[in-house]
Amino acid sequence: MEYVDHLPGGRVVMPIEREGHFAWLIVRGHISPQARAEMLGDLRHIVRSGLWEQNWQPPQAGG
N- to C-terminal Cα distance for the chain? Predict the structure, then answer.
């Protein structure tokens, strides 16, 4: 998770994928500590259980 000052379209949470990395962008002050903890727990479960699958190509050496 990364905190940002604002997102387009008035969004407060937005997933973003770039160059083999995935993150959730969250506008500062728009998620409670409890909601953040629950979201992280859910994401960990999805990844560890194999429900989340990423099919990115590994980066090429030297480039």
Answer: 27
